[in-house]
Amino acid sequence: MNPLATIAHGGSPLSDRNRVQYRTALNEALAEEMRRDPRVFVMGEGIAERGGSYKVTQNLLAEFGKNRVIDTPLCEASFTGAGIGAALTGMRPVVELLFVDFAMLVMDQLVNQAAKVRFMTGDQCRVPLVLRTQGGTGNGLAAQHSQSLEALFYHIPGLKVVMPSTPADAKGLLKASIRDDWPVIFIEHKLLYLTEGPVPDTDDFLIPLGQGDVKRVGRDVTLIAWSNMIPRSLVAAEKLAVVGIEVEVVDPRTLVPLDKDLILRSVCKTEHVVIVQEAVRRGGVASDLASIIQAEAFDYLDAPIEILAGLNTPVPFNLTLESACVPQEEDIVRAVKRVLSRN
């Protein structure tokens, strides 16, 4: 059974009658927001006629036409810049980059323009842009198409960073991101597109940015993870429950803004912390979360914080080597046991 099957926004159960795929939930979010607001449009490589490489934009062209579903040339810097310009004029563009790795081509537009315009104009100009992309390992796409680069955006003031792990989160967070007045980097995971889960069947389903979620309640260890590390963490938690270890799985859902209060409440309850990220450890988000916990909940910790992360190496093309580079379920099980052994 999929451990995410009964988890919804806020940790409440949802009926299986509304089970949809992750990519379908994203598609629904785009269609609903485009119907609601004529300023919303989408643009990217192969998103119109082909419906996108992962079919997230499938059928949007037929309903909204070529003026709002725009196939772009293979020039990420140009069409991202065009999206920022459109946002400055009051439109609400959703720009798709096929791989997060290609964000290296648009960092000037994002970091020096989109992230800073509101501050530099004294709030006179806003950039309500959503940059959708996908990252992570899993398909043997090698070093230039398999990275987890969220830490680059997490570092930049003025950018919001969203990384949903379930279909419900994907839909609710994408709708909220489109309505937000700040530029949002919305990072999906290539291995999550075909996963299924319950999603509320309502056009007004939103998840506020900055609101995390407890995906599994536990008493012994707080396990913080995001994106594709959530399903792996939940499987690991079920294995640990068999031997009497109850793990609380906390999903920030948005890295910026961060639901720090949710994390600290869980840490103060369990007094043990494991942070799991797919990205390489060096300079990663996990290290920053550990520093926050150390500064604000040190007296509650009964053991050092354990960080489990990807190896500091480019991702290999070989599937076996690729798997060895990022945390797997058994790695998470061992990390939890290590932190509990250090009391």
Folded structure, characterized:
With 343 residues, this protein is an alpha/beta fold. It folds into two domains: 18-198, Rossmann fold (3-Layer(aba) Sandwich), CATH 3.40.50; 213-340, 3-Layer(aba) Sandwich (Rossmann fold). It has twelve helices and 14 strands. The strands form three sheets. Strands 3-2-4-5-7-6-12 form a seven-stranded mixed beta sheet, sandwiched between helices. The protein has a five-stranded mixed beta sheet with strand order 9-11-10-13-14, sandwiched between helices. Helix 2 links the parallel strand 2 and strand 3. Helix 1 packs parallel to helix 7, helix 3 (76-88) runs parallel beside helix 4 (107-114) and helix 9 (260-270) crosses helix 10.
Topology:
Layout: E1 19-21, H1 22-36, E2 40-44, H2 60-64, E3 69-71, H3 76-88, E4 92-96, H4 107-114, H5 117-120, E5 130-135, H6 150-154, E6 160-162, H7 167-179, E7 184-189, E8 196-198, E9 213-216, E10 221-224, H8 229-242, E11 247-251, E12 254-256, H9 260-270, E13 273-280, H10 285-297, E14 306-310, H11 319-325, H12 329-340
Parallel strand pairs: 2-3, 2-4, 4-5, 5-7, 6-7, 10-11, 10-13, 13-14
Antiparallel strand pairs: 1-8, 6-12, 9-11
Helix pairs in contact: 1-7, 3-4, 8-12, 9-10
